[in-house]
Specification:
Layout lengths: L1 E4 L1 H15 L4 H23 L21 E6 L2 E8 L2 E6 L2 E2 L2 H12 L3 H13 L3 H15 L14 E4 H6 L3
Antiparallel strand pairs: 1-6, 2-3, 3-4, 4-5
Helix pairs in contact: 1-2, 1-4, 1-5, 2-3
Length: 172
Amino acid sequence: MTVSINRAPVLTLWAAVVAERLGFDPPAALSLGKAMAGLTAQTKGRRLGIYGPPKVGEGEKPKKAGLGEEFWVELCGRPIPAKNTPDGVRAVSGAEPVAPEPVERYLSGKFGEHLPDVRKAMERVAGSYPPKELAEKAFSLYEVFRPKIASGTRGWGQKGELDIALIESLAK
């Protein structure tokens, strides 16, 4: 079975599944997944000339800290700014924590009735790898199953086919 979808929600879901496998609770994983996909889109958008250069100060790494202070979480080979909140770990976008509830709605809206099947396939793949190995291979696994789109600016926002059987075939 295939799902017609663009890459951003696929990467969001995959990163959330990976974050859960690495030990984050589901709300933290959704928050981190959304931030990871957003940062990846910004990077690609800058490379394609769709977005301008980052603002001064972006990319500065905050120190590991306690409640309310920022630190970094490595996810799919990318550092994600995060903070401890009263609700748990949350990715940070700008100065604000990324709430998990809108991410759930976003994924439900994009995947529709296929969300449970795609999530289950991704969880099967993530669960077949020891966490350390998954952390190292997560993005390269995504590159194998992500929807194929046109290269360059022509592919920006374009939908492609996500093959659930291909995802499942990547389980060890």
